[in-house]
Design a protein that fits this description.
881 residues; mainly beta; 22-stranded antiparallel β-barrel; globular
């Protein structure tokens, strides 16, 4: 890489290279390339200029023999040359216009740079070639817009860089909410989307929006490096420091006076949003190799929940304050090593609070609770280039989190009346301390046709300390409003005992993968991953992965792509904690059918002789997993426009669900097999799912104006469980639960893109259309004596009713203002600038109805009692330098 130079010679070479730079800037150069005479115009009409520069390695040693090619604006008329012994190059006779330069040298990454030639000769270029990294080697030579014949470079990947994020409508600081609709529900599973921040799994972004550099979805969908498929994974890369000082300050404002009225609100809820986001980056101690990043954000949302319930006194309809506040601070230092590696250290702090949680729809204001969450973490990332073909990347994150949830009426029992209202105390009282360590170590080795990656990961090494008094006040369940008025509850459930618990939660993953380029246009990827989780007895969790890409012909504008992978889904720490607490010893849970009201114990204290509920894992429990497979075609329609058609099949096995194996026996359902136990909840691996989906997408870049993605999905998903907390209607007939999945939508259309109308304005848009999702018709009665009210009429299947669809169209309009001009970097003015923007959410003000009431005893059966937000306007101003 440095021609065998030792440390002393490196220093000498660095000094010499700096001398050469000064000589190139202020002195004449020896021509090493001349454009064709056809490119040169008479000086009196269109004067010609010279583009010159020097090529260096990261240690600032000159690179001789590097290939430098000058291209026109659209990549036409290439003019190649090579650098001299001083690393210098020169193009003469260049007319005014836009060009780009491509620099190549074995052992280094290919580097491209834009150059503008106006009315004066451009300054001499200083080009530093980064040392080749194995991760980038297989993708750097693919022309933009042309499908790649690499298994992990699928064309339907969604990449949102900083410019795209700045141009898309984002409600407040909710960057995650802005992209989560782009995931595939069948791939996500019951645990929700997988979030990876800087290569380490995470439960939240935890950094201010301005600190985010890029978001990727469905990148390398069958990679063995990750536990989730690409269609269920959001990868976020945060910003590293800049060798020049850069910063920004953004202010956002939203007010209910500018909004439309929600369809279920009597009057506009007096909501207001205020946010500040600041960012600063630059060199540390005047060193271009050591940089820093500091960012901070503060957000205040005066949300209002809309209550639309039925009480004995009549309809309860009104607004209720639901304010939220969040603060995020992040600081990082990055040191670039001379061998091309880097070492970075990041500290992040986040504080979030919400008041009045749970209120809205059928839940009355008295059932409100408040919650706070505070998190600190420190992350160290070390990227080392051991050799030109061997790279090791180690990331470690250590952190602590503290959360507290408190009901506003802590001593009052909760009251749930099916299809009418939920009132009383919220029965939420939980304080939790969490200490955690996350680790990821990956090594990549490139040899000939192979790119081999292997690594070990600790997604979670956690210690939880709980003080959980949830439902210590008890909960009454009524079948209908008439039963409530007559004081006839179906059931009463109450917990008691020792609320304290300390337990550990651990996950481990290892993987190996080999990407093989068999020949130009044909590549394979073979991988194997292993997953392990504490407290789950079955450890046979091997997950093979396979992918291929085939591009026939010389132009390789068409790529056939396919793959298959097994993906395991770990359970949550909350489930482990519930099992350890409700073991019949630490915490007792009393379950009574048809109790007296309002005092189920006739004034007597709860006795230990009453049967208690128990939660346990089934003896044969194993981790759920999905098998996903796909086949598709990618076709370059025009330059920078690609069409993709992909079939994706997903089959799920061993999905978690709960079952009361001590449920009252048929046919009378009036006596439990073991009267000494109440509910014996057994979490079992017995669920399954089946999904088939056709995805069509077009990614287009119509320069210099439009960049965007249009995606249509035709899909159908069936399953027999909704997650670990799902109970079948009849505990002895769980096979009757097979039906459409809760998240199933037959049609889904999404569009997001940006329009840059030169110096006039910028537009960003998001359009999401989906057909209705199913919901279940229930009797509202405890027909099986379990105290569950999920029984269905005879012959009625789960999720047999069709809910409403949804239409969401958001628009971002921005105007850039130049306040002070600076240097031109990558075709942009790097001086002081400002951006004024207007975001409009739900532009067409479509009423997106919530899930209808499925309780047959409710007078609102089949009706939606809430809706998504109406049209909202958000103003923002950002200053950058």
């Amino acid at each position: 890489m440095r021609s065998g130079l030792n440390q002393q010679s490196l220093r000498i070479a660095g000094v010499m290279s700096k001398a050469f730079i000064w000589a190139l800037v202020f002195g004449p150069m020896v021509a090493s390339s001349q454009l064709s005479p056809a490119e040169v115009a008479p000086a009196t009409r269109n004067p010609a200029y010279t583009i010159s520069g020097v090529v260096l390695d990261p240690s600032e040693a000159v690179i001789a023999g590097a290939r430098v090619t000058l291209y026109g604006k659209e990549g036409e008329n290439p003019h190649p040359t090579t650098t001299g012994q001083a690393g210098d190059f020169r193009f003469t006779g260049v007319l005014s216009g836009k060009y780009h330069i491509e620099v190549e040298k074995e052992g280094f990454n290919v580097l491209r740079r834009r150059v503008k030639v106006r009315t004066s000769p451009p300054a001499a270029l200083r080009i530093v070639l980064p040392i080749l990294t194995v991760r980038e080697e297989i993708t750097v030579r693919t022309p933009e817009g042309q499908p790649s014949a690499e298994p992990g470079e699928n064309a339907d990947v969604i990449r949102l860089g900083r410019e795209a994020l700045d141009s898309l409508p984002i409600l407040g600081n909710d960057v995650l909410g802005a992209v989560i609709d782009l995931l595939d529900p069948a791939s996500v599973g019951s645990r929700g989307p997988a979030l990876v921040v800087d290569g380490v799994p995470a439960s939240e972004i935890a950094v201010p929006p301005s600190a985010i550099q890029e978001i990727k979805i469905n990148q390398n969908p069958y990679s063995a490096e990750f536990s989730s498929p690409g269609r269920a994974r959001i990868e976020i890369t945060t910003k590293t420091g800049s060798p020049q000082y850069h910063g920004s300050l953004k202010a956002e404002f939203r007010d209910f006076r500018l909004d439309a009225r929600n369809a279920f609100a009597i009057q506009k809820p007096p909501e207001q949003h205020r946010a500040l986001d600041a960012y600063l980056s630059g060199p540390l101690a005047h060193s271009a190799n050591t940089t820093f990043v500091v960012s901070a954000s503060q957000e205040q949302d005066g949300f209002q929940s809309i209550v639309n319930a039925l009480a004995p006194s009549g309809v309860v309809h009104g607004n209720f304050p639901n304010p939220q506040t969040s603060t995020r601070v992040s600081a990082a230092i990055t040191r670039k090593m001379r061998d091309g590696g880097s070492l970075s250290l990041r500290y992040s702090f986040s504080n979030w609070s919400e008041e009045g949680i749970g209120v809205g729809g059928l839940t009355l204001t008295e059932a409100a609770a408040d919650k706070t969450l505070q998190r600190h973490y420190l992350q160290i990332t070390d990227k080392a280039l051991i050799t030109s073909s061997l790279v090791n990347e180690l990331s470690a994150r250590i952190g602590t989190a503290e959360s507290n949830t408190e009901s506003r009426l802590p001593g009052q029992p909760a009251v749930i009346v099916g299809g009418a209202f939920t009132g009383g105390g919220a029965q939420l009282a939980k304080h939790e301390m969490q200490d955690y360590l996350q680790l990821s170590d990956t090594i990549s080795w490139s040899r000939g046709k192979h790119l081999i990656k292997a690594g070990s990961q600790i997604p979670a090494l956690e210690r939880h300390a709980l003080n959980d008094r949830t439902n210590f006040g008890g909960t009454f369940q009524f079948a209908s409003l008439a039963d409530y008025e007559q004081g006839r509850p179906l059931s009463f459930v109450q917990r008691g005992g020792d609320p304290r618990l300390v337990f550990s939660y651990r996950e481990l993953g290892t993987f190996v993968q080999d990407d093989i380029r068999l020949r130009p246009g044909l590549s394979l990827s073979l991988g194997l991953r292993y997953e392990w989780q504490k407290d789950v007895p079955n450890c046979n969790n091997f997950a093979p992965r396979f992918a291929f890409a085939f591009a026939p012909g010389k132009e390789q504008k068409t790529v056939f792509r396919g793959g298959m992978g097994v993906f395991y889904q770990n359970t949550d720490a909350d489930v482990i904690g519930t099992m350890l607490r409700l073991n019949g010893k630490a915490v007792h849970e009393i379950v009574l059918s048809n109790p007296s009201y309002p005092d189920p114990f006739f004034g007597e204290p709860i006795g230990q002789i009453l049967p208690s509920s128990i939660v346990r894992f089934a003896p044969a429990l194993r981790l759920p997993y999905i098998v996903q497979y796909s086949a598709g075609i990618e076709r370059q329609l025009q330059k920078s426009t690609t069409f993709t058609a992909t079939y994706v099949g997903t089959k799920g096995f061993d999905f978690f669900r709960s079952r009361d194996i001590n449920a009252p026996l048929p046919p009378l359902y009036d006596q439990r097999p073991d009267p000494a136990i109440a509910t014996l909840r057994e979490i079992e691996s017995a669920g399954r799912s089946d999904s088939n989906e056709l995805n069509l997408s077009i990614q287009a870049k119509i320069r210099p104006y439009f960049t965007g993605v249009v995606r249509y999905a035709l899909s159908r998903t069936y399953d027999d469980t909704s997650g670990v907390n799902f109970f079948p209607a009849n505990q002895y007939e769980p096979r009757g639960e097979w039906a459409r999945s809760d998240s199933d939508s037959l049609h889904y259309l999404s569009l997001f893109g940006t329009v840059d109308a030169a110096k006039l304005f910028r537009l960003g848009m998001k359009l999401r259309l989906r057909s209705g999702r199913p919901y279940t018709e229930t009797t509202g009665l405890d027909s099986f004596g379990t105290t569950f009210v999920n029984a269905r009429p005879p012959g009625v299947a789960r999720n047999s009713l069709q809910g409403p669809g949804a239409v969401k169209f958001d628009l971002h309009v921005a105007k850039d203002l130049s306040l002070r001009r600076g240097k031109e970097q990558k075709g942009k003015n790097e001086g002081l600038s400002a951006t004024i923007a207007l975001d409009v959410f739900n532009l067409v003000n479509h009423v997106n109805l919530g899930e209808p009431v499925g309780d047959l005893l409710s007078s609102r059966f089949g009706q939606s009692i809430d809706a998504g937000p109406a049209r909202r306007l958000q103003l923002s101003m950002e200053v950058k330098f």
